[in-house]
Each structure stands twice: as structure tokens, then as C-alpha cells.
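Running log. JK asked me to keep both predictions on one page so they can be read side by side. First protein, sequence followed by its C-alpha cells:
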Amino acid sequence: MEGGATEQLTLADNVAAYRRYHLLPTHLVDVSGFKPEVNVFGKTYATPIGISPSAFHKTAHPGGEIESVRAAHNANTIFVLSLYSSTTLEDVALTGLNVTKWQMIQIWPNMQNVTSIVIAEAESAGYEALVVTIDDTVGRINYDNLNGLGIPLSNEFGLTILGEFLRRFFKSSW
């Protein structure tokens, strides 16, 4: 649950940037009127912190992304489903929870059909926005390989969204 993509340069830059800021503790200050609410695309959320796309939640908890979307619902914040999810976007949508769901996408140079499938399925399942990321399309994550990260793709683990879309894409193109 740590690390960054490829040589982790952006991670190092982010850590350095945060080190330039310091919290200044204050004591006996009235915070009863403080509300960290934020308005995003016309909706108000309890906090400016959402759940960003991260892969394979079932490696950390058997409930996987379903539990993460439940947490977003309970916190009144946005949930962004990873393309590398261990739960399909349809299953996340079927939770029936009133939560804002966005779908992560990546644009692969020679696989526009896969991107189109992701967009169509997310729209059909009620996802409200797309979050475009490019980290995986420009380089593989070396840090995980060095640490021996392996993703169990057994039947108990379930198909990933990417795996499901690739299966549909290749089936329809044969």
C-alpha cells in the first residue's frame, strides 16, 4: 500500500513538497462552526477527501471495492473505481448505495476499443465522471515487481474489470 509508478519520481516530489508545510497547532480555538464541505460539479460532499482509484482491494479485504464504496457512502464523499479493480463496475453499482461513483480510465494507443467499452459500461452503470490516468500506459510499476507483488487471479479472487473488458474485447474481435 505504498510506492509509486516506475522510478517513483512523482512520489519523491510529493513527499518533498509536503515537507515544506508544517501544521501550526492552536489551542482553545472554537471550531464548532468549521465545516470542511466541498462542492464538486454541483454536489456538496462532507470532505474534500475522496477515495481515489487503487487496484485490487480484495488483496487487503475480502469485501474489496464493495466495502470501499460503502466507506465512501458513510463518509459522504466520492468513490473512484480503478480499472484494475477486483470487483466489476456493475457489482459496485448494484450496491444500491447513494454514493457518487467515478470510473478510472486509461487511453491505450492501440486499444481504443477497450477504452470505449469501459466508458460505455461505466455510463450504463450510472458512473458520473471519468478520471483519466496515464501512469500505467507510460511505464510499468517496477517497485511492485522488486518487492514480489503478485495478484491472485483465482476464481475466489474474481475477475478484474480490466480482465473482464479484455475478455469481452477479444471475444468480440475474433
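And the second, directly underneath as requested:
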Amino acid sequence: MSNLDSAATALEKGFCEDSNFPEPQQLLSELSELLTVLEGRQPETIVEVGTARGGTFCILSAIPSVNIAISIDLPGVAATENELQSVADAPTIRAIRQDSQTVQTKEKVEDILDGRDIDALLIDADHHYDSVMTDYELYAPLVGSNGIVFVHDIVVHDRADEIEVDEFWTDLEADGTKAEIVDQAYGPPFVKRDGWNIVAHGFGVVDRRGELKGRTHV
């Protein structure tokens, strides 16, 4: 079974104990739809800003077309490069463990890309308005004309005081069409999944091709 098949199986089963992948922190229903979109695009380069344990990163890197997968997160709070390489499947796995919101970090990404565009960018780091805006303004310009950007947590529940991604998403004037991937089964109001609180969810999608539009309910 390929890593992509393993990832799909893990998504379908809700990440059973024998899965080789760390469990993602996003809703599995929304992540499965995101994976379907990306499989159709056949991205070669992916960048994830905000990796944590690496569950989503490993799934994205399992897409067969991916050659370079870059993870950005703070040191001490996210899986290390060695940990990601032990479970992720792209030929080149790189982990940059420093503040995403600096020009120095962006330059490291550009060095790894070596002139290539980003085909798929996922932003899911600091959720304050200015932080999301900074991540977007730094890395979205590196996405190619056929690329796609995903911004997580655009649907916010009433008690999510520190999550302002929804405001950023509403204000964003994107270079491409805007779409959304949202599981309507989750809030508002404040809800729980498997014993932990879900205060925000949903992917905002910027499609540089201009093909994806509107909201997809999953």
C-alpha cells in the first residue's frame, strides 16, 4: 500500500492506532476534501506554515507528485526534520524551525525551492489577524500561477477570542478566486471532537487557476 493509500485509509478510519501518521489537528472531513483537490492538481512543491506534530504535513507529502515538502514552525513546538523524514514520503523533506514571519525564513524557503514555485501552500500557524496576514504576504507571492493556497480556521466559534482568521479571510483580496471547504456539522456554537475542543475550522482556498469558487460543504 502506498503512503497516499495509507493516508486515505487513515482519514477514512479516523486515524486508528495502527496508522503510521500522526493525527492531524484539522477536521478529517475537511482535510479529506483538501486532499482530493490536491490529488487533481498534482503539486510538486508544498509548503506548510504551522506544522505542530506533522500529521497534515505527512499526508500532503504522500501525494505521489510531490518532490519537495517544506515545513515551517517554531523550534520546540513542532516535529523535527528527522521525525518528519521518518514518516513523510516526499523525496525532499525540509523543516525550518524558526519564526515564519521573518524575511530570513522566507529566504530559507526560497533557497530550498531553488527557483521553483510553490504549488500548494497551507497556512495554519499563529491565528491573530496580523500574523496570518504576514504569513500570507510573505509566502503567497511564491505560489505559482497554477498554484493554490489554503488558509485554515476561517469559521470561528463564539468563544474563540484569539482566532481572527475569519476576519483576515473576509478582508483578503486574493490574486485568484476564493473558495471554502467547510464541514457544517461543526459549530457554531462551541463543540467537542473526541474529547477536545474545536473552536475553529474550515479552509479558505485561493485558487490561482481560477477554477474553484464558492463553498464546498463536506
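Observation for JK regarding the second prediction: The CA atoms of residues 50 and 124 lie 5 Å apart.
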